[in-house]
Queue: 2 jobs
Job 1
Amino acid sequence: MLVLTVYLSMLETEEEQDKLETVYNRYYASMRSTARRYVGQYSMDEDIVHEAILTVIENLDMVDLSKEWSAKSFVCTITANKAKDWLKHEKKFQVTEVENTVMYDEDIEHMPLEMVLNMEGYYRLIRCIHELGETYHDVCMLRYVSELRVCDIATVLNLHQKTVSARLSRANRILKEKIVNEKIVEGKV
Amino acid sequence: MINRKVDDAVFDVILTHAFREAFAQEMEQIEAEDSQPAQPSEKHRKHERAYYKKMRRKPIKVMTIVRGTAACVAAVICLSFGAMMFSPPVRAAVVDTLVGFFEKYVAVDVDVDKDSKAIFVGEYTMNYVPHGFELVDRSESSAINRYKFSNGSEYFKLCFYETKDSLLKFDMEQGNTTQLEINGELAYLIQNENGYSILVWIYDGKTMSVEGVINIKTMQNIAKNIS
C-alpha cells in the first residue's frame, strides 16, 4: 500500500484521492497484465504501470467510475499506450501501417451496416476490431469504450486533435472495408 | 439503408458495442495469460519512493533555501545588533538616532568607571564661579545633587549624578551633540537652537553636568575648576 500512499500524496483533495484509490485497487492488476503483454519480456511492466498511473493522475477528471468498462478501458489503454511508447523509444516495436494502404471503395459505403445487423456480422466486426492495427487501437478504445472526447484523447495520448480525428475516421473506414472484404471472401469460400 | 446520417449513427452504436465486447475479450485473454502476481515489487517501491521524493523536492527546495537564507540573515542581524548594543558608544548612537527621529531628548554615553568607590556629594569644590552668580537653590538626593546658580537674570545648574547606568538622558529638543575634552576626559556638549546648553563630563569616576543659558567658555571653566 506504500506505493498507493505515494500516489495519493500527489493529489490535493480527498475526493481525488478516493477516486485514485478506487482506480488503483480495481484496475492495478489489469494494468499490470496489459503492461506485461507488451513489455513483460523486458521486465518493464512495473515502470510502465507507474508511468500510466502518473498519466491517470494528470487526467483523473476523465475517469468515469460509474461506467466500469469506461474506466477500465481508460487505464488499460493508457498502459498499453505507454508500453508501446517505450517499445518505440527502444526501437523494439514497429507500428504496422498496412491498414492505411487499403483503398476505400465509395461503392460499399452503406454495405457494412447491413452486414453487421445480424449476430454473424456482429462477431465478424469484433474479429475485425481485434485485427485493427496498433495505430488505431488505442484511439478507438478511448473513443468507443472510455467515451472520451477527441480533445481528451489527444491530451491523454499526447497527440494532435487532428491526428486523433484522422485516426478515428480511418479506423472506421478500415473496419467497414474489412467487413465487406471478409464477407466477400466468406461468400466465395 | 435509411439515409446516410442514420446509417452512420446506427453503425456507430453497433461499433461502440463491438469495441466494448472486443475490449472485454482482450482483457479476459490478457488476464488469463498473466499468472504473475500483480503487487509491486520491493525494487519498484524503492524506485517510486525515489521518484516521489524527487518530485516533492523540487518545489520545496527553492522555498527551503529562501526560508533558510532569510532566517540566517535575520539571526545574524539580531546577533550583531545585540552584540553592538553592549558597546556604550553604539548604544548612545542608537538612542541618538531614535531621539533624532522623535526629537524628544539627546542621549550621551558618559562611561562611568563603576569600580570607583569615591563619594562626591558635597565634597567637591567649585574653584570657579562666574562673576555675579550665587548659589540660589540646592537639591540633594541619592541619585542626583543639583546646585542652581543665578545672577538675577541668568542661571546655570551644576549636577552630580550618582548613577550606575552609563546612559544619561537629557530632555532637549533639536539638540546637537559635540565631543570635547575636560581635564583629559571625554565630555559632551549638547546645545539647542534657543541657546540652552548642557555640558556633561566625568570627574573622579562620577558624572557631572553644567546646564543653562550661559556662555560655553564659562561652562568649560566651571567644569575644569571642580575639585
Job 2
Amino acid sequence: MDWRRFSFIALIIATLFGIVVSIGHEQTSPAIIITSMLATTIAVATPLTLGALSGVYCERAGVVNIGIEGMMLSGAFFGWLAAIYMNSVFNFSTMPSLLIGVLAAMLAGGAFGWLHALLSVTFKVDQIIGGTVINMLAIGITGFLNRQLFFEKGSIFGGQVPHAPGVLPRIQLPILADIPVVGRVFDQQPIAITAILLVFLTHYILFFTRWGLRTRAVGEHPRAADTVGINVRKVRYANVIIGGLMAGLGGAYFTLESVPSFEPLMTNGRGFIALAAMIFGNWTPIGSWAAALIFGAAQAMQINLQFFREMIPAQWAFLQQSYIVGLAPYILTMIILTGIIGKNVPPAADGLPYEK
Amino acid sequence: MTATVLQAKGITKEFPGVLANDHVDFDLREGEIHALLGENGAGKSTLMNIIYGLYNQDEGEIIINGQPSNITTPNDAIEYGIGMVHQHFMLIPVFRVTENIMLGAETLHRDKNRTPPFWKRGIFEWVRQLDFLERRAVTKKVSELSHQYGLDIDPDAIVGDLPVGVQQRVEIIKALYRNAKILILDEPSAVLTPQEVEDLFRIMRELTSRGVSIIFITHKLKEVLAVADRITVMRAGKVVDTVIPEESNEQKLASLMVGRDVLLKVDKKTAHPKGDVLTVSDLRVVDHRKLDVVRGVSFNVRRGEILGIAGVQGNGQTELIEALTGLRPTRSGKVILAGKDVTGKPPRVVTEAGLGHIPEDRQRHGLVLSYPITDNIMLCTYYLPPFAKGFTIQQKAVDEVTRQLIKAFDVRTPSPFVITSKLSGGNQQKVIVARELSRPVNLLIANQPTRGLDVGSIEYIHKEIIAMRDRGVGVLLVSAELDEILSLSDRIAVIYRGEIVTTVDAKDATREQLGLWMAGAKPESA
C-alpha cells in the first residue's frame, strides 16, 4: 500500500472540504455542509471511477485506452436511447426501461471496447491513434443519431424528444444510511454504489485470482505469458471489452442517474480526467478510486461555494468567480500528472502490440 | 545403454530467405547433458524453439520416449515434460517468485473439492477464473524443489530484486514445477559471472543425477568441454558432428563450428611503439550519483601498441572511457590526444582529433538500431565529404562507401539498406568496427569489443585490432575477459576501485597475478 499517496489524497480532500466549511459555517452547520459535499463528491466521482476502472482493465492487460471518453459518451447516448425507446415505444414502465438502458449503455461501451481491441490487438494500430478514433467516432455517431432520431422531421420520435423515464432512484443501505453526517455516503443511486463495489471487486480480481494474475502478466511481459501457454490475444480482447463495459456503465451515469436527458459532448472531458485518476492511482483500482474522489471533492467545492458566495472573505475574492473555482479539477489534474507525489509505474508492456 | 528420451528427425524450418534448420537430427538420452554448440545464427535456437512449440517445423518429427509427438504450442511441450530456460528470461520482474512460477499453471483455492459446485461447471466454468488463487501450496512446493535441488530460493522475493544468477534458478524451478524431465537451457551462461557459472554447472549435474535430461545450448567452448556428456555441433542450419568431450578439444570444436581452422590464440608480432598518442594525467570522474569513480588515473598509450585495461566490471572503466571520449564531464585532470588537449571537449572535437571508439554497449551507444547500415556508417562524419556536400547528404557516395565497407569488413547482410537491428550481434559489431576503423584515427578505444560474439567474429575483430596497431595506431582495450586482455595487449594496466593499481608488460603478466591485482591486492614493489 502506498500510504504516502493515500495520505496526500486525504489531505487534499480535507482541504477542499475545509475551505467550504470555513466559509459557510456561520450560515449553515458544518455537519450539513459536510453531508452535502460528501453526497456530491461521491456522485461526481462515479463516472470518473468507472472510467478509471475501464483504464485499469485495459492497461493492466497492456492496451493503452485513451478512448474512455468516447466509450462513456456512447454509453450515455445509447443507454438513454434504449431507456426512452422502451418507455415510449414499448410502454415499459420506468424501472425496467432504466435497467434496460443501463444494460444498453454497457453494451455500447463494450462494443467500442471490442473495436479498440480489434484495432490495437489484431491490427496492431498505434493505441493512441486507436483511442482517438474511438473518441471521434463516438462524438460523430452520438451527435448524428441524436439529431436524426429526435430532431429531424419524419424521424422515429417525430421531431420531438419524448418524455424521459426519469433517473434511477436512490437506494438507502439499511443501518449504514442512518449514521449521522457520513450516512449520506450510503444513501446513493445504484450506479454510484455499483461503482464502489466494482472498485473492490476489481482489486480482488486483479490481485487474487487467476484471471488477474494472467492479465497482469500479459501487461507486463506478454512473451513470458506466451511461453507458459497463456493466449495473449484472448486475454487482451477480454480485458479491453470488460474495460468498455465499465466505461459504458460510467456513461449511463450521465443520462440515467444524473440528469434525464442527453446533450452532444455531454461527457465533457470526464474520460480524460478518469485516465488521469487511473495514472495517479498508479494503475490500481483503489488508488484510482481515491484519485477520482479528489476530483469529486473539487467539484463539490465549486457547487457548494456558490451557495455561500456572499460570505467569501474579501481576501479570497477570487473564489467568488465560479469559473475560477470550476477550473479546480483541471488544475488538480495537471498538478497530479506532474508526478510530484511519488513515481507512477505503468505496466511494462503498456501500449506495445505483441509480436509473436 | 540408457533410453533415448527425445529424438528429432529430419527437422526442417525455413524462414523467408533463410533455411534455419536443414534436416536436423538430434537425440537426447536420459540423464545426460547434451551440448548443442554453434555460432550465432547456426540454427540452435530455432531447433529448440521447434521442440518447445514456439515455432512449428516445416518437415520432420519429434519423438518423445519412443512415441511420435505433436507439439504445436508451448502448452503441448509442457504436457510432454519439456521445460525451457530462455536466454532472455521469461520472468515478470514485478511479480513474486511464486507468482512467476505458478503463472499459467495456477492452483485455485477450491481445487481440493473434487467437483466444483454446479454453478462453476460446464458452460459456467469461466466463473472459476474468479476463484481465490492458492499461494500457500505453491510456496511450499517451491521451497521443496528449491531444497531438493540445492537451488536456494526465497519464494516470496520480488524477481526484479534478485541477481541474474538467482533469476535463472527461478526459471529452472518454473520448469521443474511443471514436472519437466527434459530441460532446454538456451545460452544460460551468457549473463552470468564466473562464480555463477560454476553454480549453474553444479545445479545441472544435480539435476541430471535425479533423472532430468538437459540440452545445453552455447557457443562457449570451455564450458562445453567442462560440463557436457555429448556435444553436437551445428553450422548453417545443419548438424556437423556429434562428439564426446574426451575425444575433442577447443581447437577441434572451433573448427567444426566455424567450418575452417580458427586461431584461438591471436597471432601477433612484437610491438614497435613510438611516441605517446594519448596521455592521461590525474583524471578524476564522478558517476551519476556524484560519487568518485575514477580517482586520479594517469597512464599513456603509445602509437603502435595495445594497452589493455584489466579489471572486474564496475571499477570505473565505463566512466573512464566515457570521460576520454567526451561523453562524460571530467572533474579534474588532463587528457592529451595526439598533442591536443581534449579534456572535457565534446565528442565531435575528440573524434576530429582522431579517436575511433568501439563502445561497451553496441546496441545502445554504438548504433542507431532503427537506422539502415548506410546511416550508421556515416554517423560520425555525416557532415564531411564524401558523405556531405554543403548541407546535403550525398546518398550515392554513402551507398558506395557502405558497399565497400561491407565487403572489406565482411558484414554478412543481404543489402546495405537492412535495418541494423535485424543483423546478428557479430555483424552489428562489424558495422561499428567498419565505421570507426575506416576513418584516419590516431587512437582506437575498444571497450568490450567482443562481448557476446561467436568464435568467428571474435577472431575477426581481434585481427582487425592487431592490424590497426601494426599500422601505428594506439589502442586502448578494456575487457572483462582476462584471456582477451592477455592475448591482445602489449602492456596491461590493472584498474581497481577507480585507480590504476599497476601497469605491467604483457610478457611478464600471469593470469593468477592479474587476478589478485584485480581483486585489490597491492603490488609488492612500486
